[in-house]
Amino acid sequence: MTTTSARTPRPQPRGGRARAAIAAKTLRTDRWWFAPLITVVGLSAWVIYATVRVFMHKWYWVEQYHYLTPFYSPCVTDRCVEGSSHFGQFLPGWWIIPDAALTLPFLLLFRLTCYYYRKAYYRSFWLSPPACAVPDGHQSYSGETRFPLLGQNLHRYFFYAAAIISLINTWDAILAFHSPEGFGFGLGNIILLVNVVMLWAYTISCHSCRHIIGGRLKHFSKHPMRYKAWTGVSWLNVRHMQLAWITLGTLALTDFYVMAVAAGWINDLRFIN
Amino acid sequence: MGSKRQFRIWRGDETGGDLKDYTVEVNEGEVVLDVIHRLQATEAPDLACRWNCKAGKCGSCSMEINGKPRLGCMTRMSTFEESETVTVTPLRTFPVIRDLVTDVSFNYEKARETPAFAPPADVAPGDYRMEQVDVERSQEFRKCIECFLCQNVCHVIRDHDENKPAFSGPRYFIRAAELDMHPLDARTDRREYAQSDMGLGFCNITKCCTEVCPEHIKITDNGIIPMKERVVDRRYDPLVWLGNKIFRRGQVPQTSATSGHSSGAVTSGGTHGGAHAHGGGPHVGGVHSHAGGSHDSAAERQAQQGVNWHREVPHPTAPAVDASGKLPLTELTFNKAAAPSPFGDDVTFPLPPEHLNFAHPQQDEPKH
Ligand code: SF4
Ligand code: SF4
Ligand code: FES
Ligand code: FES
Hints:
The complex is a heterodimer. Chain A has helices spanning about 35-55, 105-110, 115-125, 155-175, 185-205, 205-215, 225-235, 240-265; strands at about 60, 65-70, 185, 270. By secondary structure, chain A is mostly helical. Chain A is globular and about 80 Å long. The N and C termini of chain A lie far apart (about 60 Å). By secondary structure, chain B is α+β, with helices and mostly antiparallel strands. Chain B folds into two domains: about 5-100, Ubiquitin-like (UB roll), CATH 3.10.20; about 105-260 and about 270-275 and about 315-355, Fumarate Reductase Iron-sulfur Protein, Chain B, domain 2, CATH 1.10.1060. Chain B has twelve helices and seven strands. Chain B has helices at about 30-40, 105-115, 130-140, 150-155, 155-160, 170-180, 190-195, 210, 220-235, 240-245, 255-265, 295-305; strands at about 5-15, 15-25, 60-65, 70, 85-90, 95-100, 100. In chain B, the strands form two sheets. Chain B has a five-stranded mixed β-sheet with strand order 2-1-5-3-4. A two-stranded antiparallel ribbon of chain B has the order 6-7. The chains are: A mainly alpha, B alpha+beta. Chains A and B meet through helix 3 and helix 6 of A and strand 2, helix 2, helix 3, helix 5 and helix 7 of B. The structure holds iron/sulfur cluster (2 copies) and FE2/S2 (inorganic) cluster (2 copies). One FE2/S2 (inorganic) cluster binds near residues 52, 54, 58, 61 and 71 of chain B.
């Protein structure tokens, strides 16, 4: 462990004196509760949809066009349909095991420890604080200083995992240019592609990525290429919140489309073959 | 043009207080601070309020307007409906002195605790050269006007007063980030310090500081999160830890100016010869006394040799007073063209460097 060379003595901030006696907990007059409310609704809806889909164990693969939903990629249990498993089928097909048991936990942890989602759920679910200048809903507060929230610092590792998983998703999208005649191209391909592009944008705009790419440097002038990359990532990073929501949308939409085609509710709109 | 508007302003002191109603005239183009001034000029001459520049640059007029931490001089009345009652209260997080004036010394104490810029060991003041891309990030944080709105809104201390001793607050996190990103700063323990002594871990990046900053500094995205990532580099990254073990080095690229002693501070000294690297460096006969932050006591001592620590500090002359012992009030009766200098009229600025004997509080403490 590193030792800091010397510590400035810490005088107690002059305490004990009274704050202004203001009775109202908050005097905000705008609709400050709206953002946390919509976050709760949006995130809950998505989590419910995803949970239902993950434990459905069907309609995740369109044999004809090789469409595979991201929720089941790669499929690694022994109940998986041939073709959806790039990495073998080494897990037992128990109901409780998600078919993408290799990737989903990491994706979940990636988003759970994401700086944006942290802000979103600390505010909306944990009310800490629900909105700025609105009191925290808790008696005491230790933030991310101890277990379990100290674990948020592992975000970087989940970022590495997510980058690898984005590669797998890209591979899925490429394999999906398929039809019984060989090459094929339909609406499903566009949806899969858009989803993958958005996933990449979200993953690359990650704060950890911004740090690794160049943020950690002290001298940009000595690393012109990394500085350029950092500038690019920073541009995306400003949009990280939007990308976080967009990818929730594209993920659900892609999954729903594949489910609908696989279940035979709709036919894929084909452009070529 | 003017219209009558409703105001509620908190009046009181540390023994208690209340929201008082006022009806004030508001004219086109006015800001909340103008209205406060009109109140002082009319109905409430004893209403206390701190202000200075009226241009959003001094950071004095911080208050809470309709529950939101804002600068009074930067909040236009046109942002409210004519029929709306505007509520103005003092900052909640700090002890109140009177009416809208709070005691913000918490922030000054935290400022003093934050280690200052540590000059590079082998570059003399005056020889500092930096490239614009390298200082750009730090410059964003220099826009801070110290209005302490971010400190006030941060729920870590706003809602949990007991965290005040352990938590420095967003304004000082960006100070730490500014210096950690500074191309010439010689300290290498800033991130460690931020985590262990400034309470960086208390922040849950809910971004209220960014929301209220009148200078639009991206406190969270550009300051706090990068600092958290830098802490991860050092504390929680097993790959970096392993790399340090194997290669015996700090993971952050250093300038040639700082690499000498910086690694010494990271690993526990003695693993390499860096500490001696600039002992015989280009110190020109004590011209510069880089009296701060360096961990290299040998270099430190050498640098101090040119400084006379026991010099007589010349007492400045007292300002000229008249027969009654008071400052002459008018220029007409005064024997100089302008007001006397509070430092004494015989003191000129800048002070000659050989007359400076500033000592950094930590320079004499033993290494580790
Ligand atoms: S982001 Fe952190 S420092 Fe800023 S207000 Fe929120 S908890 Fe406080
Ligand atoms: S960082 Fe912004 S909000 Fe905080 S003190 Fe500086 S100017 Fe004010
Ligand atoms: S994914 Fe959101 S910050 Fe890393
Ligand atoms: S009076 Fe200076 S910032 Fe408002």
